[in-house]
């Protein structure tokens, strides 16, 4: 598994962010169980509740392309070291994971950090 490739793609996606209000660009890259990659960036709206996070954008892209199970997701912001997903994104990530969870990759101090969604969202809501 080439987590560095995922991170590089997340960095590229962050460059397409539309974040004029927060000035906080984020990019994400999802690896589906099919082996395909899907990208997303955050985009804001002056009605802040309509803002979409990069993670949910990338997962939506995966779903739109027929992916229903995710193996890993890399998340990057040039504005924050160790850019972890918000609570809403943690729940959405957990919706599309295998029983053993999804690897969540961030960059901290120039090194990759790999966590499992089960660590980030213990006791997650699941039907």
Please summarize what this structure is.
The chain has 127 residues and is of the alpha+beta class. It has helices spanning 3-14, 54-64, 87-95, 117-120; strands at 27-32, 37-41, 70-76, 103-108, 111-116.
Description of the structure:
- The protein is α+β, with helices and mostly antiparallel strands and 127 residues long.
- It has a single domain (3-119), classed as Cytidine Deaminase, domain 2, CATH 3.40.140.
- The protein is 28% helix and 24% strand.
- Strands 2-1-3-4-5 form a five-stranded mixed beta sheet.
- It starts with a helix and ends in a 7-residue tail after the last helix.
- 35% of the residues are buried.
- The mean pLDDT is 94.
The residue ranges in which pLDDT falls below 50 over 5 or more consecutive positions are none
Strand order in space, largest sheet: 2-1-3-4-5
Strand content: 15-25%
The total of helices stands at 4
Describe the global form.
globular
Second CATH tier, the architecture: 3-Layer(aba) Sandwich
Give the mean pLDDT: 94
């Amino acid at each position: 598994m080439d987590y560095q490739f995922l991170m590089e793609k997340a960095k590229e996606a962050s460059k397409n962010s539309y974040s004029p209000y927060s000035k906080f660009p984020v990019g994400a890259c999802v690896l589906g169980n099919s082996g395909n990659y899907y990208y997303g960036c955050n985009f804001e709206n002056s009605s802040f509740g309509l803002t979409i996070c990069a993670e949910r954008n990338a997962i939506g892209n995966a779903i739109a392309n027929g992916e229903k199970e995710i193996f890993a997701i890399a998340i990057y912001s040039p504005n924050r070291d160790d850019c972890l997903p918000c609570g809403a994104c943690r729940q959405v990530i957990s919706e599309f994971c295998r029983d053993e969870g999804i690897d969540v990759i961030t960059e901290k101090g120039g090194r990759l950090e790999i966590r499992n969604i089960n660590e980030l969202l213990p006791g997650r809501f699941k039907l």
